[in-house]
């Protein structure tokens, strides 16, 4: 969100949100990171949904576009995408991109035209189509080496225009798009092996491989260290509250971590209370 406001280039703006604690917390965090931008807090009256009409309309349009994208992809693939497939985490961003670059407003311009002053001219590719692209930042060490890679298109980087392709190693940025024949573009081979979500674009396996390789190349292996004998603990350790505990015994009232487990399936940004 900070990057989006930076792209707009405004030095003064009003940031309107409802009175939910999550959105109020998000706005506070954005203001803290944008000290050089004057942000005015605006909110609707308590419980008055009609006062947030534009936001509610935008949410409804994005949801409709997400459903259309998923149905179109499943029809082309000839199979259903499971609800926890990582590709669906990119659907809202892709839907927002489509609405911003294609849908015309009352003034005959798209939101992208109003933002940048020019049209979005990149090739229109359906969500989750299998395409070829050139890996960003890599030119290849040999004239005979392949410079193209294959992946499922799940979005665009709005600042650079790079395409975001989902592969079995995570999200990879590419330059340009080369579409494939229909049977290759919508093949179901390897779909369940794809990974990468907006908040974790590279798979854990790839991160570990990169870290191990970097450690081996940069530093020699140190001699083994024999740890000193460990003294017996006199104080009893505190008990951890696990996700399985919350699922088994139910959430504690007033505990933000429990609420996070119920909503997102894991603890995000909070710790369990002493009562919990």
Taking pLDDT < 50 over at least 5 consecutive residues as the criterion, the unreliable ranges are none
Total count of domains: 2
Strand content bin: 5-15%
Order of helices and strands: HEHEHHHEEEEHHHH
Gyration radius (Cα, Å) is: 24 Å
Secondary-structure-derived class: alpha+beta
The major pleated sheet works out as: 4 strands, antiparallel, barrel
Shape: globular
Question: Percent of residues in helical segments?
Answer: 25-40%
Average the pLDDT over all residues and give the rounded result: 85
Number of helices: 9
Q: Main sheet: which strands, in order across?
A: 3-4-5-6
How far apart, in Å, are the first and last alpha carbons? 33 Å
Based on DSSP secondary structure assignment, what is the total number of beta strands? Answer: 6
């Amino acid at each position: 969100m900070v990057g989006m406001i930076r792209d707009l280039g405004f030095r003064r703006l009003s940031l309107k949100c409802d009175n939910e604690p999550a959105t109020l917390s998000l706005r506070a965090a954005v203001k803290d990171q944008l000290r050089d931008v004057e942000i005015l807090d605006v909110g609707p009256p308590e419980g008055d949904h009609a006062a947030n009409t534009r936001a509610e309309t935008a949410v409804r349009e994005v949801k409709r576009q997400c459903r259309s994208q998923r149905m179109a992809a499943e029809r082309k693939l000839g199979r259903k995408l499971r609800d926890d497939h990582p590709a669906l985490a990119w659907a809202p961003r892709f839907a927002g991109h489509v609405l911003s670059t294609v849908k015309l407003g009352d003034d005959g311009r798209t939101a992208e035209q109003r933002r940048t002053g020019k049209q979005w001219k990149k090739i229109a590719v359906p969500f989750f189509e299998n395409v070829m692209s050139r890996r960003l930042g890599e030119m290849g060490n040999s004239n005979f080496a392949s410079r193209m890679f294959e992946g499922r298109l799940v979005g665009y980087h709005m600042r650079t225009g790079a395409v975001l392709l989902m592969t079995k190693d995570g999200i990879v940025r590419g330059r340009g798009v080369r579409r494939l024949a229909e049977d290759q573009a919508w093949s179901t081979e390897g779909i369940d092996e794809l990974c990468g979500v907006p908040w974790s674009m590279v798979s854990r396996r790839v991160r570990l491989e990169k870290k191990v390789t970097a450690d081996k190349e940069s530093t020699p292996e140190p001699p083994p260290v024999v740890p000193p004998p460990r003294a017996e603990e006199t104080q009893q350790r505190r008990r951890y509250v696990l996700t399985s505990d919350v699922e088994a015994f139910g959430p504690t009232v007033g505990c933000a971590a429990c609420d996070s487990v119920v909503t997102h399936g894991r603890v995000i940004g909070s710790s369990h209370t002493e009562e919990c």
